[in-house]
C-alpha cells in the first residue's frame, strides 16, 4: 500500500507504481477529501484515518501488507503498523515521521491558519519550502508543479490535516515494539519534516535503517527519483521474498 502525503497527488507515486506494479498488487488509496474520496463528514481524526486504511487492506488483501508512506502518509503507515489490526510485512517511510518537534507543530498550526485565511503567496511558499536549491536550478518547472499540489485536497481539507498533525500523538514508544523491518529515507535539507524525525525512530528501534539524501529536501521522488525508487524496490522485494 502506498499512502500519499498532505498534500500530494497520487501522481507523485508514479515512478514507484511503474517499478512495483509488474511484481506486486498495489493498493493506492486517496485519503478523505482527495480525488474521488469524499471528505469526512466528521472532524478529521488520525485514528479514523488509520481505521479507514485498515479497512481497505482487510477488504482487498489476505496476506501481510507492505506499507510505503510519504510525509504525513509515513505517519499513517507507522500508525497502522503499531495498532496491530492488520499484519504488516514492512514499513518504508519517505520524508515522514513518528513524532514531530514543537517548532514543526507550531509551523503547521500557522500554515493551517494561513490556508483558512487564504493568505497571498502560499503556493510559492509551499513550493519553495518543499525542494532543495540544487533541484530548483536543474528543474525550473518544479516549483510550478509543486504549487499545484495544493489543489489535490478539497478546500479546507489540508488545513484540517495540518491541525491534526500538529496535535498528533508521538508514536515513538509504540514504534519501539515493532517486529517488522522499517526503513526511513530523508533529505538533509528537509525543513517540513527534519531528518532528525527519522533518526528519532532509529533511536528507539535499533533495527530501523535511515537513509539520508544529501542536498535534497521533502520531495525525494522528484529530487532523487532513480536512487529513491531503487531503495524502495530493494526493500519491498527483500521483505516479500
Structure characterization notes:
- The protein is α/β, with parallel strands linked by helices and 241 residues long.
- It has one domain: Alpha/Beta hydrolase fold, catalytic domain (Rossmann fold).
- Helices cover 47% and strands 11% of the residues.
- The chain contains 12 helices and 5 strands.
- A 5-stranded parallel sheet has the order 1-2-3-4-5, with helices on both faces.
- α10 links the parallel β4 and β5.
- α1 crosses α12.
- The radius of gyration is 17 Å and the shape is globular.
- It starts with a strand and ends with a helix.
- The model has no long low-confidence stretch (mean pLDDT 96).
Write the layout of secondary structure elements.
Elements: E1 2-3, H1 14-20, H2 46-60, E2 65-70, H3 72-83, E3 88-94, H4 102-117, H5 122-130, H6 133-138, H7 142-147, H8 157-166, H9 172-175, E4 182-187, H10 195-204, E5 209-213, H11 220-223, H12 225-239
Parallel strand pairs: 1-2, 2-3, 3-4, 4-5
